Fold ATPase.
Amino acid sequence: MQIDIYGFREPPFLMTPDARLFFPSTVHSRAYAHLMYGLAQGEGFVVVTGEVGAGKTTLIERLCAELDPATYVVARIATTQVQGDDLLRLVADAFGAQPDGDKAAVLRSIMAALRNSPRKHVLIVDEAQALNHSALEELRMLSNVTDGKRALLQTILLGQPQLRKLIASPDLDQLRQRILASFHLGGLSEPEVRSYVEHRMRAVGWAGNPSWDDQAFGVLHRHTGGIPRRINRLCSRVLLAGALEHAPHLTAALVEATASELDEDLGAGAEEMPAVAAPRGLAVGLPMGAAAQLEDLAQRVEALEQNAARRERVLNRLMDLFAETSGDRR
């Protein structure tokens, strides 16, 4: 629906990571620089952490798209809570080695695969926060494999913030000594939220329709914390709301109402909703805390009223369409 009305070639805010839509924000550019630095060293570990939806997978998709396949062999695995032996089998399968047999046979198969190719081998382990100590220790042991002159395997660990706490464990000191670069992906700044939204829309054919309120991007940032996947989810719903009303302009109030509706749909409680700034002058003469609460409440009421009015308009339009369809059938 939003493609038809606004003329997009494809949806701009899909949840699936897409390297074509990579946005070089400050944090993502720095994370990418850390990855490239680590790869240039030719050994050890690179660690990238971030909240769910921060853009780790998109970052890696971009990296893999730019690595020369004549120089690099890249293997990727996504882990759950696997033991060390099972992880070795996943690594063997990812590099095209033989994953069957006992542990010694699997290790020999991995080493043969690494040594039989002159290219550099990079292992990317996603959801690494789910690994236990024995699995991480197996990865550390694989980092010791050399041809006498150089390491044959580099490993990139991607994970949620818990991975940093896991690696800080006293039992993993030897692993920490092999980490060449580490970076934590935070959220986008408020100005970058605007650039991110416009970048994704422009990539699928946006030419100014719909337009956005300047204040809408501040509301987006407040409700998403600048996390790309959260931005995608909220913007997708905002575009849907705008398309239902054939709105050529997306307002801050529409974003606010849509965010509230999305929280309702997902079962979020009022205590989890971020604080909202309300129009000035509604609470003059009250104590500061009470004034802030009253202004916050006024903003929420306004958003809910606009949301209810929008739903009523959509319902009326659907009833009109149903009536027209029924008339055609008669």
About this structure: Confidence is low (pLDDT under 50) at residues 268-292. The beta strands are 45-50, 72-78, 120-126, 153-159, 179-185, 211-212, 249-250. DSSP finds 13 helices and seven strands in the chain.
